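[retry 2/3] EAL domain-containing protein: previous attempt timed out, resubmitting with same input.
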Amino acid sequence: MNLLSGRSVYHWLATRLIAIVWCRFYNRANDARIAARFCSRIATLTVGLGVVSSPAVASPLVSYALGAQAFTFIDFSIAFVLGLSLPMLLLVLLVRRLVPNPWWYFTALMLSALGFLYSLNYLTDNQAPAVLSFAISSISLVYLWSFKSTNMLFLDGESEYFAHVKLGEKVLISASILYVLTIWLFPSLDAYIGWLAFAALVLFTGAVQIAMMAKVAPEHVIRLVGQWLLVGLFCGVIFFYLHAQVALEWLITSFVLSFCGALVNSNWELVQRIYQLITEQKAVNEKQLTDEQIFSFTHDPATNLPSYQQAILRFEQLSFQKQLTDFAVVVVKPKNFADVNRVLGHQNSDLLLLQLAYCLKREVADLKYLMNFDFSDINAKLARLPSLHFMLAIDLNKIEHSKEIVVDQLCRKLASAVPSAMSFKSFSLRFELACGVAYTNDHGQTLAEVIAHAGDAVMEAQRNQVLWAEFNAQVALHSDQQLQRMEQLKLDIEQDKVHWQLQPQIDVGNHQIRGFTLAANWRYNGQDLALTEFIEVAEQSGEIYSLMKKMIVQTFQALFELRKLNVYQPIGIPVLSDKLLEPDLAEFIEQQIATYNISAKYLVVQLSEPVMQVACEQAKHLIDQLKTLEVGICIAEFDGSYESLRYIRKLSVDQVNISCQPLCLAEAGSAEKAIVNSLVSLARTMKLAFIGSHVNSRQGLTHYRAMGGQVVEGSALSPAINVGELATWTETWFKRYPSAHTRDSAVDI
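[retry 2/3] EAL domain-containing protein: success.
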């Protein structure tokens, strides 16, 4: 069946036009005839490749010179499709790296559209199957392209919409292949009914897409509805055209409209993405930082030196460019700058810090082996780290001597750069530097880790009172072990794995029990540590208050057990940290007094004298709170200091504990013995109740008794006992010393 026949205008026009150009160039008529035959072959190839387009013959002069022949409507349609598609295809291909897009569907749709129009105009054999095949492929590609384009709207590849899209793609591809095979392999079948079935399937698939998009992205429904209507129009027109009820022009018009609708719909998101990228780039350009802003972001405001982040960025950049990793990082700190902050305040001290930074920077500006931390200033060999630290980096590939010699020379050079006295108004101070060094190949995997290790070396130099120190891995190991101890102690406190004991206080005359002191033991790595040995770990881990609350609870539980045994004697709680001198401690004690219904006079808080000296005001407030509750106050480790005597004069202290540990090793006439003797004499003169603590040997007990001491605490008379063994110990003690039986009388201390 021949739908339409005609002759290729492109072939005729290209042949004549090239011939005329050839003739004018050589100005010979015979050559024109030869050229016409030669160019006929070229024009055939040109038209076949789609290079020549209809606008080339729009000139009336050319038409007149060649013998005018009018274009058909299909020819104009082919030219329109090519003129519209090629620029858009070029744009899509150019931006495919910037904005990924399904350009292959666009290309296939354009070729299918050209095949459809070509079949209508130029095919004579098998025209109907060819036209229907290209029409089917065009419609399928319209929706396949639409599916792929709308996929760019979503990031969730597992959403419900994606599942329907994948199903729709499979249905369209399968139906298209089946229908094309049917019309080519079984020409006797009714192709019209098949077309209706295929068109209904396509329109149903498009309707499902519209319904799904209405749920997830309703703003795109209008375009999809427009595309669906145009495709439906084309499907209907081609059906009536096959029955010779519609003119060819209407068929071409409906096809071109559906093609244009597909271009608009499927390229809409691509254009929106391109516009979005342009807008974002414009916003980025508008937000581009000025040189002053970049400087403020990459430099320390107090010293105008490159910041810590800038130093790391510059280091990584140079290391990557030159493939160098062998550096020595030197961290410098002014040791006594805290005095400046305390006297002048931070704002004024920044001015002195700026002077110091300028002196150090000027001194090392000419050293070629130092890394430059700035992108613009070639003399920026010094960077500012957090706190009061400065940093330099030595490129070990540029030094001529050993790295230890170079580091020592650099540190001495920095120390000599500091003026003898730096002044601010009437304030004057000489800065002293401490330096630490760490090596990138030996002391860390990253620059930040190496800088941290160099900072640890600074603290080591300060402790040892030296100019500089190299990072010691053993120090880091000790820090790691300390962290492990903190974590383990925290866990053991939460799980009640700290071991509690009571140290009896015994009258050496009649062996009566005068009280107890709570002792805590913590087992770590197979060793039993006393409270004095792990109190610092508790402070550092932040569990000191939790530990103290456990001690208070254990004390009241022990007092409750003693009351059941009719033993009414006080128990002392040692306070060995100034972190515990808070009002919350007194409030917690008050809660426990109410909970256990035990008189507060049976509780004695033993304040360590070194703690009172460190935080005298906090100690005073805590003592006042505890005295209000009638809690006993004891000064442990009493050494006759002014602070202790001040509290004693105010009658705020009930007893003192004098450490007799020196007596256990003291010889007759030794200074240690004389000191303990003077403290005992002082307590007796001031009529203070006192107890000799740490009496752990018979020698110490003998010396203490000779000084007039009466009550002792230590293993010389009785070792510490477990809280759970309190009943057994008291029975054994009273059987051993019948005169010590004082169950029914409370002892005043």
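[retry 2/3] EAL domain-containing protein: The two ends are 127 Å apart (CA to CA).
[retry 2/3] clearing retry counter.
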